[in-house]
Predict the structure.
Amino acid sequence: MAAGAAQAQGSGPATVEEVVVTGSFIAGTPEDAALPVDVLTASDLEKVGTPTIKDLIKTLGVSSGTDGETNQFSSNGLEGLSNVNLRGLGPARTLVLLNGRRMVSAPYGIAESAQTFVDTNLIPAAAISRIEILKDGAAALYGSDAIAGVVNFITNRRLSGLVASADYSTFDGSDGEWNASLAYGWQGDNTSWVTTVGYNFRSETSFNDVDVARVSFAENPQSGYSGIGNPGRILNALAVGTSAPGTLNVIDPGCTNVGGTIANGACQFRFIPFDNLVEEETRYQIFSELNHRFDNGVEAHVEVLYANTDVPKWKTSPSYPPQRPFIVVPTSHPGFQALLSQFPSLATANPWLATAPAVLWMGRSFGWGGFPGNGGGAQVGSRSYEAYRISAGLKGEFENGWGWDLAFTHMEDVGKRSTNDTFVDRFNRALGGLGGPNCTGTTPGANGCLFYNPFSTAIRQGAFSSAPNPNFVASVENSPALANWLVGASYTEATTRVTVFDAVVNGETGFQLGGGNVAFAAGMQYRTDAYALDPNDNADFTKNPCPVPGQTNCTTKTGVFGFLAPTTPADVDRNVWGVFTELNLPFSEQFEGQLAIRHEDYGGSIGATTNPKLSLRYEVTEDLVLRGSAGTTFRGPSLNQLSGQFTSLAFVAQAAAFKAIDTFGNSALDPETATTFNVGAVFNRGDFKGSIDFWSFDFKDPIIVEPFGPLLANVLANPTGSPFANRVTFSANPPTAATFERIRVNIANGPDVNTSGIDASAEYSIPDVLGGAAVTFGGDMSYVLEYKVDALVIDGVRIAA
């Protein structure tokens, strides 16, 4: 790692300060203080293989459930982003700082939980000197978001000289990942300047390139298979408008010819082979800081961060399952006639196929044949993020010895997402022969108008088949021009901003206790949070709420796309101010306490909060220290939790398939609060050091996304009487798990949660091994003792125990 190498090569042996800066604004806090703080230095990181920030976070015992991969199934829709999740309590409950100052939340949150978080991929690993991890609630000092704790990335300002580093890693089926960095530091008498440039490239790895992804339907029917595919199935259209979609079900006989599996009355389509296990990803990071000490002792600090992440080819299924999978197709359709011609026994076994004026077709627009618009592959979208940050500060001392610190921080993060989906109106027009970019007039199949063929006769060869489709009919093939006309991009640009002013005064009060002078810190913070969401016309609910573009008076307002729901533009901000004070109380040389309290005001419906915290430390012997803390914490809802809507794809157990989940923001959200408790011990003797802590969190009104499973179960148990029936869309009557298509859930205040556990760490060093080198063994763990959730009540109805 460049940071570690910089200390070793550029400025001599690394020297690590004996104090930490996280968890207290009073100078001189030791690592074995009353609060549980872990410190990882650049040297520590070098010893474990100089990991990237993302990989380092994954190895922390106190962090679990983090996101950091680029594939859409394990990243929760956060391709290109990474976060830290202390104790698995949710990344939104971990406050991430850079040199003690706030960073802005990523523009897109976690779809399943609507949680916001700081993107740790923005931080170049080579710039880091040490990482301090406060494993305790810290709202009394830092305000909102510090419920589970604080992770403070501290940069190396002492580098002198030029340091370069690079590494390469790979695994079977991948072309590998590159990391490179270049750092330069200059040290003058009173001025220092350090700049670090980071580069990361991850190559694309398809699911189809790894053995674990090649799973048959018989081996695991839940491994990405869907009964709504292409080829699809045909039903009796005589039942249109009645209580059932059809009385007979005919699977497209070309199903297996193009790669499908016939099971459960459908041609099973597997979308995972079209996706990537790892998306191609390129990232650049630049961090530069300037420090200067004036003749009067005042120190100035300026730092600038720029980061760009690009996921240019985000691959997904050739098409999504439509909201309404039953489509009326006239039997005069050329594709249908070609199907009957290729499979004459079909009509013999099902006479209604030849006599009915129309049939019902159930499926998605493109499946096993891939997307014709790009030669039969996946649909390709994109993800990108661009962030910049500037932080500047002055600090010095008054004549009485008290220190003062003033700082200004501004940061902005812009995310852009583009995902393709099928237009409902164009799809219906193309089924009737009025499709294509050059269609004029009203005569099906004439004057440049094209038919869309939903049957297997349109597929030349399955995307993963070894042989051509023997029943392919060239005259009814879907052209690339028609395919590209049928789909469009749902595009959004989301921006988050934060501007923060900090002021802190600290020093000694002059009041003596048994162990010495009472020290204090007091300060204030004023910050402005802003969030903006700008969708294109296709994704804008205010412009296109209905399937027909420009129409606004439809009954079902699900937007212009078959799967992706529209979203509402947003441009909101708020001002938050807080004041705090902190006291260090040395009752004796062995026993001391830390008392802190913070008042923070969000204004509006969220209101204000006051959070106290008490921490105690008792030095039993020189080797053994006992510590404990108790306090309250607070987290106000983020701006993007208060408004907007978005669609995600999730596995629904009742349907045994992935379905659409529409999540809506909630302007009536209350803040969540928690009471935290920690008690532990630190033991250091000779070459051994270790610690153990018991922790507990009692959450009130936690901000959640309503779980769709219990809601759907409530509706399925009572389809006509459930108060949540209007949230669920079914493809046909009667409503069943088999006909379930999508569900609406809200961001809400959920049931109370109580959780507790134990953290432990140990390290032992053996000096003078193998010619003088030291060998160190160690490990750390976090064990959850309990995680209890109260009954879930939504709109006055208890839907889960």
Notes: Residues 206-277+315-382+420-490 form one domain. Residues 353 and 735 are 26 Å apart (CA to CA). The first strand starts at residue 19 and ends at 20.
